[in-house]
Amino acid sequence: MIGALPETLTVGDREYPIRTDYRSVLQIFEAFQDPELYPEEKQLVSIYLLFEDFSDGDDVETAVEDGFDAAEAIRQIAWFIAAGRPDREDKSLPTYSWSQDEHMIFAAVNKVAGTETRELPYLHWWTFLGYFNEIGEGTFSFIVNIRNKLNNGKKLEKYEQEFLTKNHDLVEIKPVLTKEEQEQEDEYKALVNEVLG
């Protein structure tokens, strides 16, 4: 039906109720950015975060042993996250990070929605994504535009270059480090500060 927001996903011949609040999808994004998780673990986490029938990985593994098609569930999750649009294989570098840019994303989404979306007890992912896709001019879109130009080797305007110089930490998308890599990074920074301090 036109305009209907999905509340279930079909795996095999059964419809499963899903957690449709946008927070569930953002948690899936977090899991997929977690460098400590293997790809199979990320898929397992995404299934139990979205499908109401599962509360943890053990539930999913038991269901798989009983015939639940995890690969089809992942395809259905991808369809839901993409708001029903066909899959596009996008090999371009990212221009935003849901976790790093959280404060800017919510400010922009809230402007479009006309309310503080984080205070809403429930907001369907597709509605949230609609707000996100309608983000207009502002800090977030300005930074995304700079990142896009940098990713594609395009020349920045003078005002963009000045902004980048003053706000490099804000513009650069930082890689997500494992716990071990973060500890090494922290040790290196402490050593540099000790030597220069």
Write the layout of secondary structure elements.
Elements: E1 8-11, E2 14-17, H1 22-33, H2 39-50, H3 57-65, H4 70-81, H5 102-113, H6 125-133, H7 139-151, H8 158-166, H9 168-171, H10 179-196
Antiparallel strand pairs: 1-2
Protein model, in words:
The protein folds into 2 domains: 8-81, no CATH class; 102-116 and 136-191, no CATH class. With 197 residues, the chain is mostly helical. Helix 1 (22-33) crosses helix 6, helix 2 (39-50) crosses helix 3 (57-65) and helix 2 packs across helix 4 (70-81). The model has no long low-confidence stretch (mean pLDDT 89). It has 10 helices and 2 strands, in the order E-E-H-H-H-H-H-H-H-H-H-H. It is 56% helix and 4% strand.
Short description:
This protein has 197 residues and is mainly alpha-helical. It is 56% helix and 4% strand.
The helicity comes to 55-70%
**What structural category arises from helix and sheet content?**
mainly alpha
Q: Kindly state the number of beta strands.
A: 2
Through-space gap between termini = 64 Å
Overall, the morphology is: globular
Count of helical regions:
10
User: Could you list the spans in which at least 5 consecutive residues all have pLDDT below 50?
Assistant: none
Integer tally of domains: 2
Identify the strand order in the major beta sheet.
1-2
Strand/helix succession: EEHHHHHHHHHH
Mean pLDDT value = 89
- Please report which band the strand proportion falls in: under 5%, 5-15%, 15-25%, 25-35%, 35-45% or over 45%: under 5%
Q: How large, in whole angstroms, is the Cα Rg?
A: 20 Å
Largest sheet: 2 strands, antiparallel
